[in-house]
């Protein structure tokens, strides 16, 4: 009977399902490896007691690890530096080469060294890039059309994000908002992204048994406080524009160093990170484990501002050092610090503000800063909801994300991955397109 015969759609969806399963397993293995290395590194530091010895050992190990990650990237796959999202978008536009074997090796082992050293980088960048490269490997083993090929790349990237944060819905929306210029919207490709995201998150949850990774317990906040959250969004919009500008500037600064000496910034960044791991550990790592502790703590405004500045500078120099790592997780932790500083200051001025408002500022700030930098406000809202489980704050987060995105737009800011792709193409001697933010999302073929 005809309706029992598997058609081309079914075969394509099987490929997407396989991508999701493979990426879920690969991402879980990567995350487990990072946690294993960092836990044993922490145990070593603790065993050295106090004094100068633990500082010397930590500086040496982190410095060596970051240089090792840099050399792995440079010698195996230079395009594996950073998050890789711009590389995926460039590949979908046909402007960037895809060497999936080399990227998987460099991203996995370079990422283990970089993240295990304590750099202010997130694991989601490597998993997104490795997810797309896994899909590329599968696409090359099969005869697929260019459109289906792009669809599988997007499905792999979405699966990587879903696995990193256990956030499949945000991963799906990320493809819609972030790759709206490159993604070939059709029923087949759209469903492939959904299938891969669901299965990747399911594999990760089954293997790790985790729920919302940044769980925050908070109740509803009064409607009148939305005015303050809108003001917070304006501040975050400006901060997001500045973050994007500063990241490109620091990367360009490092690019001016002679080729044979570019390992020196990696050594310096790693060494400083090693010292901070002992002196001020909250200023290191991607910050996934930091968020919940910050929300439940009672840091003062000055301490939160200092932590915001340290983590802000940390991600700029960590990313620019040329090792694998993402900016999503650091952005969330920076936003948490800034949001808590805003909420704490508001509570000091208006004593009627309670801990729920302070926590609401932290959660809303995560989405607002993400929306201002990446310019994907809907992804910001959904990602924060899936990460924190704070569904009572959907409206406050919407308010903050909207005002942050509008502020960034009116300040002339542009999406960070668009700028990173343009920079990559420029360094490769290509003339990048000048896209507009009004590129339509073509859903008519779904």
From TrEMBL:
InterPro entries: Cl-channel_core, ClC. It comes from the Bacteria. GO terms for cellular component: plasma membrane. It is found in: Membrane. The keyword Aminoacyl-tRNA synthetase does not apply. The chain crosses the membrane at residues 12-32, 52-73, 104-122, 152-175, 187-203, 223-247, 259-280, 300-320, 327-345, 357-378, 390-411. The keyword Transmembrane helix applies. Keywords: Chloride, Ion transport, Membrane, Transmembrane, Transmembrane helix, Transport. It is a multi-pass membrane protein. GO terms for molecular function: voltage-gated chloride channel activity. It holds the Pfam family Voltage_CLC. NCBIfam families: PRK05277.1 (NF003640). This is CIC family chloride channel protein. The lineage of its organism: Bacteria, Pseudomonadati, Pseudomonadota, Alphaproteobacteria, Hyphomicrobiales.
